[in-house]
C-alpha cells in the first residue's frame, strides 16, 4: 500500500518502506518505476526476515557502518539491504527471479 506524506519521510529521502506501507514524499513519485521497484525490494527483504528482525539488523548494520565510514550517506548506501536494492532497482523483473535471502550476497 502506497501512502503519500511529506511528514513521514525523513529529510533527505524521497521514500521509506515499513511493511506493509511504502511511504512516498509526493504523489508524483508514484509514477517512478525504478523508485517503486527499489521499495518493493525492501518489502521482500522485510517479509523474508519477518519485519522486526529486518528493522533491527538494518539499524545495527547502519550504526556499524556509520562508525566505520563516519559519513551518514556512505553508511546508508553500504547497508546490505540498500546495496541490493540500489544495484537491482532498474531491473523491473528482478523480484521475479530473486533468490530467497539474496541480500546476504551484498553483505561484506
Report on this structure.
- The chain has 108 residues and is mainly alpha-helical.
- It is built from 5 helices and 3 strands; from the N terminus they run βββααααα.
- The chain has helices at 33-48, 52-69, 72-77, 80-88, 94-97, and strands at residues 2-4, 15-18, 21-24.
- The longest helix is centred in the middle third of the chain and has 18 residues, at 52-69.
- It starts with a strand and ends in an 11-residue tail after the last helix.
Number of strands: 3
* Overall pLDDT score: 96
Structural class: mainly alpha
Separation of the first and last Cα atoms: 32 Å
Structurally, the number of domains stands at 1
Helix content: 40-55%
Count of discrete alpha- or pi-helical segments spanning 4 or more residues: 5
Net shape? globular
Which regions contain 5 or more consecutive residues with pLDDT less than 50?
Answer: none
Name the helix and strand elements from N-terminus to C-terminus, one letter apiece: EEEHHHHH
Q: Main beta sheet, described? A: 3 strands, mixed
Radius of gyration: 14 Å
The amount of beta strand, in percent, is: 5-15%
Write the layout of secondary structure elements.
Layout: E1 2-4, E2 15-18, E3 21-24, H1 33-48, H2 52-69, H3 72-77, H4 80-88, H5 94-97
Parallel strand pairs: 1-3
Antiparallel strand pairs: 2-3
Helix pairs in contact: 1-2, 1-4
Amino acid at each position: 500500500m502506497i501512502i503519500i506524506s511529506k511528514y513521514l519521510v525523513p529529510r533527505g529521502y524521497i521514500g521509506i518502506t515499513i511493511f506493509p506501507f511504502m511511504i512516498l514524499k509526493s504523489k508524483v513519485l508514484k509514477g517512478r518505476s525504478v523508485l517503486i521497484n527499489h521499495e518493493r525490494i525492501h518489502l521482500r527483504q522485510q517479509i523474508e526476515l519477518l519485519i522486526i528482525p529486518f528493522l533491527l539488523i538494518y539499524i545495527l548494520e547502519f550504526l556499524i557502518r556509520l562508525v566505520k565510514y563516519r559519513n551518514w550517506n556512505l553508511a546508508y548506501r553500504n547497508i546490505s539491504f540498500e546495496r541490493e536494492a540500489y544495484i537491482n532497482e532498474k531491473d523491473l523483473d528482478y523480484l521475479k527471479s530473486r533468490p530467497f535471502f539474496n541480500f546476504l550476497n551484498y553483505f561484506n
